[in-house]
Amino acid sequence: MSYGDAMTARARSGRRAEIVRATLEVIAERGYRGASLAAVAERVGLTQQGLLHHFPTKEALLVAVLQDRDRWDAMPAGRLRLDLLASLVEYNAMRPAIIQTFSALLGESVTEDHPARAYFTERYVEVRAGMAEVLRAEYGDRLPSGLTPERAAPLLVAILDGLQYQWLLDPESVDMASAFRDFLTLLGESAD
């Protein structure tokens, strides 16, 4: 690859990242169904045709947004612990636009024809399995309540997601990080 080709590829990659960020913002404001290619193109100073040069469809943009979000939150397998989940909740409180976009897409994806439905369905299979591993590493084959990690994992995920929705709706009243630490205390108190 020549120097000129490398510079063009780098510029193109930077432009794609800018488009993905703008798409995230537009989805956060309007939801996926309300977001238009024209709104994203306008936000980055492109025509709609120029935007389509980088991403051929609205669905391709959605996939790019979801993939970027997953890269930001990636944690190597086996490295996640309950105490690190509390740190993740604190981190999420510092990035409301990303949480808002994720929550809007998640809510919309429950409809049959939504292009992110399969993504979220598969993601939750993986997340529940990961949470079961976290719980097993902390408590073994049974939590203090007697539940298996597999039975408790969906509850842990529900706490995490439910806190995000409550925080997005009323950030002045809901402190996600404190509420999650309170939940961890409940798990620990059950052990006594």
Please provide a written account of the structure.
There is one protein chain. This protein has 9 helices and no strands. It is an all-alpha fold. Helix 2 crosses helix 3 (48-54), helix 5 runs antiparallel to helix 9 and helix 6 packs across helix 8 (149-169). The longest helix is centred in the first third of the chain and has 32 residues, at 3-34. It is elongated and about 60 Å long. The N and C termini lie far apart (63 Å). The model has no long low-confidence stretch (mean pLDDT 85).
Compact description:
With 192 residues, the chain is mainly alpha-helical. It has 9 helices and no strands.
Regions with little confidence, pLDDT below 50 for 5+ residues: none
Oligomeric state of the chains? single chain
Distance between the termini: 63 Å
Order of helices and strands: HHHHHHHHH
The helix-and-strand class reads mainly alpha
Query: Helix count, per DSSP?
Result: 9
Gyration radius from CA atoms, angstroms = 19 Å
Q: Helical content, roughly?
A: over 70%
User: What is the general shape?
Assistant: elongated
> Total number of β-strand segments?
0
Overall average residue pLDDT = 85
Q: Major sheet, described briefly? A: none
Percent of residues in β-strands: under 5%
